[in-house]
Write a structure and sequence with these properties.
Layout (H helix, E strand, L loop, with lengths): L8 H7 L14 H11 L11 E6 L2 H9 L5 H5 L2 E8 L6 H10 L5 H14 L5 H25 L3 E5 L4 H7 L6 E10 L13 H4 L5
Antiparallel strand pairs: 1-2, 2-4, 3-4
């Protein structure tokens, strides 16, 4: 009888490396990609406004075009899918849906819901665009890392890519003005192992411990 080995989160973290060689014949179903994204968006976000948006690219011709504006990175074309993570500079426009949903789920009372909505509407719309983009980029990092660990847990490999022409990406996919591309994540079955890498010792990055 075949047994399934359940790995710990620590093992998954240690085993996840950036893979750049993929089996181009392997296809991950749209349903499974959606399942992975549903898990990934459980990540925390500033004021729970969830400023992440996704474009999933699986069409082979579209991946080929995308490779041309992504520094000719092979994995863009050969991975099963490329998931583009975008940030929403106007994430505050979702505030009613976010907090009303929490209220209807019984997670907060109406007074608290109204207080949070009012507080968000008094601050976020008046913040500089740079601040809003920083918030969205930070939250996109959280959801992206969570997505890559989820993929690894399911037996897939990933590599995040920040090196692509973002202006051309916006034109290619007709991206709304309120959204901006942050990172591309290739997902698929590895055709070759990732290169091993090292990390700086903790002593080099831990500034102080009190």
């Amino acid at each position: 009888m075949e047994t399934t080995l359940i790995k710990s989160l620590s093992e998954i973290i240690k085993e996840r490396h950036s893979v750049r060689k993929y089996d181009s014949t392997y296809i991950i179903s749209q349903e499974e990609i959606k399942d992975m994204l549903k898990e990934a968006i459980q990540a925390p976000s500033s004021s729970n406004l969830q400023p992440w948006r996704f474009i999933v690219i699986q069409d082979q011709e579209a991946k080929k075009e995308l490779r041309a504006i992504a520094n000719n990175q092979e994995q863009v074309e050969t991975a099963s899918a490329v998931i583009a993570v975008l940030g929403d500079k106007e994430m505050y426009k979702s505030v009613e849906n976010v907090y009303r949903s929490a209220y209807e789920a019984g997670f907060m009372d109406e007074a608290n819901m109204n207080r949070l909505i009012e507080g968000t509407n008094k601050t976020y719309p008046f913040a500089p665009e740079e601040v809003l983009k920083n918030i969205a980029s930070f939250d996109a990092g959280l959801v992206s890392m969570q997505l890559m660990l989820i993929a690894k847990d399911r037996g897939y490999d990933t590599v995040p890519m920040g090196g692509f022409d973002k202006e051309r990406f916006v034109k290619m996919f007709d991206v709304s003005e309120r959204l901006f591309p942050i990172v591309l994540i290739s997902v698929g079955k590895a055709a070759a192992p990732a290169f091993n890498s090292t990390r700086l010792p903790l002593e080099d990055v831990l500034i102080e411990y009190k």
